[in-house]
């Protein structure tokens, strides 16, 4: 399985942008880059995903390096509700369609 | 819209008892799956289904059974509960089993086995 590497923890201040990095140097051509987050005592929540191009949605932006070996999840203005564990996961289809959750990045947002 | 609904939210069992964790989705999703999450660990896949009548094993299937008689429902059965099955269980669904399809999770069932 292709693996991802994320920092164990990051800290941000409220209303400031947050850039969460992820390295995936062994990514294959069919792997999509997915981001999920998990708030305390809740199930994982889908944030965003992409294949090659940068993506934006109402929650966040995803910046993908040209060689696809790294990506960055961008929260444009962090709020206290964004404090969670963020998981960067590679996902391909068919028999390999399986979310493998690592330890993720624990994001702390300071008021 | 309800999304993925799991019941019950909490359950305490005695060793050897059986029970069924319920999962239902109202999004007409083809793919459904069950994960367990233990303290300090990531989620691990138990069983999954790619459509009604089709199920398969994930990473940690021992001690669990599943069936998929309808598109909407994917119950997880513990046949004879053991303390090692104390965990938080999450059900997830997606439109199809392609890499560009995200999975949507329920709020989980917190299960304690004494």
Describe this structure in words.
- The complex is a heterodimer of chains A (111) and B (114).
- Chain A contains no helices and nine strands.
- Chain A has 111 residues and is mainly β.
- Chain A is globular.
- The mean pLDDT of chain B is 94.
- With 114 residues, chain B is mainly β.
- In chain B, strand 5 (43-51) and strand 6 form a beta hairpin.
- In chain B, strands 2, 4, 5, 6, 9, 10 and 11 form a seven-stranded mixed sheet that branches.
- Chain B is globular and about 40 Å long.
- The termini of chain B are far apart.
- The relative contact order of chain B is 0.33.
- Chain B contains no helices and eleven strands.
- Classes of the chains: A mainly beta (111), B mainly beta (114).
- At the A-B interface, strand 4 of A face strand 5 and strand 10 of B.
Please count the beta strands of chain A (DSSP E, at least 2 residues each): 9
Largest interface: A-B, 24 and 20 residues
Along the chain, the helix and strand elements of chain A come as EEEEEEEEE
Helix content of chain B: under 10%
Mean pLDDT of chain B: 94
pLDDT < 50 stretches of chain A: none
Beta-strand fraction estimate of chain B: over 45%
The span between the termini of chain A is: 38 Å
Mean pLDDT of chain A, nearest integer?
A: 93
Radius of gyration of chain A: 13 Å
Give me the secondary-structure category of chain B. Answer: mainly beta
Give the assembly state of these chains.
heterodimer
The major sheet of chain A is characterized as:
5 strands, mixed
What is the H-and-E element order of chain B?
EEEEEEEEEEE
How would you summarize the topology of this molecule?
The complex is a heterodimer of chains A (111) and B (114).
Chain A lengths: L8 E5 L4 E6 L8 E7 L6 E6 L4 E2 L4 E4 L5 E6 L8 E8 L13 E6 L1
Parallel strand pairs in A: 1-9
Antiparallel strand pairs in A: 2-7, 3-4, 3-8, 5-6, 6-7, 8-9
Chain B lengths: L3 E4 L2 E4 L5 E7 L5 E7 L5 E9 L2 E4 L6 E3 L9 E3 L8 E8 L9 E2 L3 E5 L1
Parallel strand pairs in B: 2-11
Antiparallel strand pairs in B: 1-3, 3-8, 4-5, 4-9, 5-6, 7-8, 9-10, 9-11
């Amino acid at each position: 399985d292709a693996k991802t590497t994320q920092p164990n923890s990051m800290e941000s201040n409220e209303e400031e942008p947050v850039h969460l990095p992820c390295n995936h140097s062994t990514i294959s051509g069919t792997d999509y880059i997915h981001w999920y987050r998990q708030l305390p005592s809740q199930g994982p929540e889908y944030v965003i995903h992409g294949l090659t191009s940068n993506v934006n949605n109402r929650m966040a932006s995803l910046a993908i390096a040209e060689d696809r070996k790294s990506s960055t999840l961008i929260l444009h203005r962090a709020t206290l509700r964004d404090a969670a564990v963020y998981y960067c996961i590679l996902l391909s289809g068919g028999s390999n369609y399986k979310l493998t959750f690592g330890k993720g990045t624990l994001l702390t947002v300071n008021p | 819209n309800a999304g993925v609904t799991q019941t019950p939210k909490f359950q305490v069992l005695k060793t050897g008892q059986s029970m069924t964790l319920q999962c239902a989705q109202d999004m007409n999703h083809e793919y459904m799956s069950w994960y367990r999450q233990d303290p300090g660990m990531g989620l691990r896949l138990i069983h999954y289904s790619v459509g009604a009548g089709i199920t398969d094993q994930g990473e940690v299937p021992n001690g669990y059974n599943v069936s998929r008689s309808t598109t909407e429902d994917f119950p997880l059965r513990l046949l004879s509960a053991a303390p090692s099955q104390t965990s938080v269980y999450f059900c997830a669904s997606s439109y199809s089993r392609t890499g560009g399809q995200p999975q949507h999770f329920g709020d989980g069932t917190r299960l304690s086995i004494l």
